[in-house]
């Protein structure tokens, strides 16, 4: 496969941060009671790749059944951000990541990040690790993934044929809508039913990032 652009999700693909995000959702929602906090944590695991804004709005409207919640929404998101900022810089990165990114770059391909996480947090975490230099763009919310894909394709920064490496059904659906190939990264996924889903959709899966070297342009 001679993909010209390689697109990576961040949480659960580049970084072992899915558990960190789940814990942060729980901590942010805990002032509203443990049952509500557990419900939000479960919702997060079932909807990987969706922005935190959408998840917290679901929390207040569907779990707490509230209509007037904007000040509380901002406070909950601030607690969430405080919990994850340093943790993102400390968690493990995928083994073989730098070698894969170097191979893509030397073969003439480009790599970008499209994450459901806050763009500033993702950029800060990857810059702190010295990983940002491998990427031609690092994007996240407040834009959702569909918006980012449409924008980057229109701007000529995401050139097809391209592949998105993600770890959720939402990532797969977003890739299909954008006309990208998709590879499911299973090694840190929060998606409990991923085996059935991947079999049903005949998806290529990798249990470690180094397996993607088989698909690097110029490699056989």
How many whole angstroms does the radius of gyration measure? 17 Å
Estimate the helix proportion, in percent: 40-55%
Tally of domains:
2
**What's the name of the CATH homologous superfamily of the largest domain?**
HAD superfamily/HAD-like
- Total strands: 6
Separation, N- and C-terminal Cα atoms: 10 Å
Q: What fold name stands as the CATH topology of the largest domain?
A: Rossmann fold
Main sheet: strands, sense, barrel: 6 strands, parallel
Low-confidence stretches: none
- Tally of DSSP helical segments: 9
* CATH class assignment of the largest domain: Alpha Beta
Shape: globular
Give the second-level CATH assignment, the architecture of the largest domain. Answer: 3-Layer(aba) Sandwich
The run of helices and strands is: EHHHHHEHEHEHEHE
- Bin the strand percentage: 5-15%
Mean pLDDT: 92
């Amino acid at each position: 496969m001679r993909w010209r652009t390689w697109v990576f999700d961040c949480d659960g693909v580049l970084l072992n941060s899915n558990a960190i995000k789940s814990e942060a959702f729980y901590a942010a929602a805990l002032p509203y009671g443990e049952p509500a906090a557990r419900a939000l944590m479960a919702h997060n695991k079932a909807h990987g790749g969706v922005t935190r804004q959408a998840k917290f709005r679901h929390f207040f409207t569907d779990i707490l059944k509230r209509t007037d919640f904007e000040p509380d929404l901002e406070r909950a998101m601030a607690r969430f951000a405080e919990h994850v900022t340093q943790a993102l810089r400390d968690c493990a990165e995928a083994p073989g990541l730098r070698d894969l990114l170097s191979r893509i770059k030397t073969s003439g391909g480009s790599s970008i990040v499209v994450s459901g996480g806050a763009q500033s947090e993702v950029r800060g975490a990857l810059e702190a690790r010295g990983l940002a230099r491998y990427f031609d763009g690092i994007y996240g919310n407040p834009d959702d993934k569909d918006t980012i894909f449409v924008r980057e394709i229109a701007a000529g920064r995401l050139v097809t044929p391209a592949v998105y490496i993600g770890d959720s059904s939402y990532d797969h659906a977003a890739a299909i809508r954008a006309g990208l190939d998709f590879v499911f990264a299973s090694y840190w996924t929060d998606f409990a039913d991923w085996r059935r889903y991947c079999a049903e959709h005949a998806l290529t899966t990798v249990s470690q990032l180094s397996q993607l070297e088989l698909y690097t342009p110029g490699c056989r």
